[in-house]
Task: structure prediction
Amino acid sequence: MIRLCFIALCLFACSAALVASHARAADPWLVVEGGEGPGKGKHVVLISGDEEYRSEEGLTQLAKILAKHHGFSCTVLYAIDPATGEINPNQSDNIPGLESLRKADLMVIATRFRNLPDAQMKEIDDYLKTGKPVIGMRTATHAFNIPKDRPYSHYGWNQTGDTMPQGFGRQVLGETWINHHGHHGQESTRGLIVPDAKDHPILRGIGEGDIWGDTDVYTVRLPLPGDCQPLVLGQVLEGMNPGSPVVEGEDAKKNEPMMPVAWVKTYSVGGGPTGRVFTTTMGSSTDLVSTGTRRMLVNACYWATGMESQIPSVSNVNIVGTFEPLPFRGDGFKKGVKPEDLR
Result:
């Protein structure tokens, strides 16, 4: 009888585990459990959702690097087609799983012109009101496009109300969408360290010119507002590889002065606590091919969570698994992929 009870208990446990495993596999987001490392016990939520720069690829790889090499547990969220459960960056009104922000230590966001429902925006609003840290990448300067008649319209990239002029981009990250500064798709970006910032923890282990991306430099208004501290300037290059020469002739004016492409600042929403922010206008999936760009982002996660003293002298940013990012272009995402396929 005891033996039969034991067998029944084992079968029940196995059945429960299978049900839990199946439920987790069906979740429309990706969980990457942290291994050993300084980040153990910290939870990072990475929010993708842009039509062009393949944030669904870049943030997935960044999460795997943070988890495997540094111990952070990561949840990656995606724009999901509710009819199929597939990742569809063109679905601008649905990013399930934002409730994971309730237990997050850091939000990393790389969305573009999202018009999320009120319930989803509330999760982001609640997070920001706590003053917890934020990392914004590339199109996060224009992360949201919320109509005027909606409760969270003040997060919209071009809204003109008194609450948050120019929205999340300007008021949280430091800048909204202005324009392409380099020639989009033809002039890549070499990151040059601002001399006064060379000892900043985020730049630890990064040499001059290590940061590179095939996306172009974005225009920002100078000087950046408030307490923004530029860390990296974007040198416009003639071509689309790290060894391309600097633009010359009439285009040379694009580097006089150079635009900041990475900076740190603080923010506060709704009179809440002040939080740390790292913003980079780089950050497409193809930009993450560069070791220096990956190292800047990993170091920024340490800094944002108050762990700057634990940033390694040269942080491990080796690719985890296979990483072959698709070229950036509108509607250029891989079709038919579900979050569970990215494990």
